[in-house]
């Protein structure tokens, strides 16, 4: 950039008048600008001369038809200051200025409110620095704007000329500048907020900035809710994101340092904070089962809850956050008093189970079956039911308690939980005339064991026979485990009470799979101990393995001897069944290699009855 050298200062009256005209409508330079530029030689044209146009300023004027059309004629020579990278010049024209610096190049500043605001702030040596763009006019509502080194000046007739800069200006830009949802700025930037924050007001909202969060727009119903919370001083803190638009059903949301505000046309703006917000987000937010929040968080005693379109979320320090979503389980829970009622707080969400739905609460489970509705089931009973619900069916009545324990009536059986023993039982009535059988498929049909027990004085019988099961051998009917596992895990439920006799008839399947002696004895002792714990006052008798005397049953005879000898060592009543089928003349009365037909059972039964009476001293 070349500049004119020092010239003589002469201002005839007519030229003085031209100088005043050349400054309109910006009027006289502000004191700051005058001081900054006072030492710069001023070239003033004579009545007949035209100020020189040179360098970048002259090049812009001479090559841009638009610049010539808005600036008209030069009224002064260049006014320059600085040197090297800090050098800059301004030349006045009838319609504005051309300002040049080594950093920004030459730009046009058109007469008007933007130019006035620039010069009022000190021009190129003031707050804004040199322009980095030309003046842009014809914006919405007759607005105009221009970018400078340290910000942008934007003007509209309704808002006046306002400066935006830095992060706030960028946030305004993300919203679409003056054509976007914020509209024109209506104030300058204000500082002094908590943690060094700042804000600026626009026609339809604000932009708020803090060092920790950056600058983000704040407007509409979401801003109104933020104001209710105390803005940056409140529980939510500063906005941490721009508002997210276009959510489900026309909704929007905005994240804050310590929460979220969510809005939809049908629910309004609601705040979400803490664990409830985290849970809601993790379950799909407004797109999940809960939908939009319809209320604010409510604290009640030691928990908090919040209502949503699709249900309610509860939280406590002890239970964490869980929801009840609309449907039969939710309705039943509310009818029982909700979190403050009979069931207490939810400990899980609603879960699918066996074609129905279940949900755990502090004081039990709500179990919904397609044909039975929602029923209350206690924790211990539910644990057993959930392992194999098909064996029980759905609960048909809420749990209840009496002197025997805590009952649940299922479709297929009734159960009783006994707190004293910590055991779940079936609810069949038993007494001294009752025999309880636990065995394998040797108890199928009207078995030799059942017939023999009736003959020995036990007309009431409860039979648990599971094909394939043994002390070691497992069966899918009880989850793949052995009789020992099934009994200790309550997968086989025996009746509560004090039956006169408990009989174990196992071992044949252990012989079939070739289980080791050590495994059989270890598991047999576990099972017998569990039976003694369940029935401390009942007689427990161990049957051996029914067999023939032929070689194909050698392993069955071996296991018979193994378990009856172990029972003898422990002082348990026992009956060996080795070779009994041959002795009874039933060696040919088999359905296959191991299972008798009914004729065979009938032949063996009298021998067993006689042995049973003898062992029991009857």
Structure description:
With 618 residues, the chain is of the alpha+beta class. 27% of the residues lie in helices and 26% in strands. The strands form 8 sheets. The chain has a 5-stranded parallel β-sheet with strand order 29-28-30-31-32, sandwiched between helices. It has a 4-stranded antiparallel β-sheet with strand order 1-2-3-4, with helices on both faces. Strands 5-6-7-8 form a 4-stranded antiparallel β-sheet. β24 and β25 form a beta hairpin. The longest helix has 19 residues, at 598-616. It starts with 12 loop residues before the first helix and ends with a helix. Mean pLDDT is 90; it is low at 1-47.
Short description:
The protein is an alpha+beta fold. Helix content is 27%, strand content 26%.
